[in-house]
Amino acid sequence: GNAVGNSIPPYFIFPGKRWNDDFLMCDVPGSDGEMSKNGWSTSSIFQNYIMKHFVKYANVSDTSKGAPTLILYDGHKSHILLTLIDWAKKPNVILLVLPPHTT
Asked: What is the average pLDDT across 10-17?
């Protein structure tokens, strides 16, 4: 969420191997998610969330000339990705990583 009250629909991580659209049948419109072997987030899941789901709802600019978007997030090791840092430069996304387990 942000200071003016806007929020992004949830992104769920389910344990298992095969996705079933029924997982989101009774959920908030716009919700999405994916599977992981144990139901925990991974680096690729976090990257998919930020680069696909988050930008879809956060009104992130397509160029570095747009208004900056600040993302504050937990510094868990699965969230620290060079590909994400490189990606963030083009749409003017500022990644502010907090120490692990402080959020």
From this structure: 94
Q: Please give the model's pTM, rounded to 2 decimal places.
A: 0.83
- Please report which helix (H) or strand (E) contains residue 45, including its range: helix 43-48
Dihedral, CA of residue 64, residue 44, residue 50 and residue 66, to nearest 10:
10
Sequence-separated (6 or more) residues with CB below 8 Å from residue 52: none
Judge contact between 71 and 96, C-beta under 8 A: yes
Reported as type and span, the H/E element at residue 13 is strand 11-15
> What residues pair up with 34 in beta bridges, in sequence order?
13
Quick one: how far is CA 84 from the chain centroid? 11
**39 CB burial (10 A radius; 0-12, 13-18, 19+):** exposed
Q: What is the predicted pLDDT for the residue at 103?
A: 64
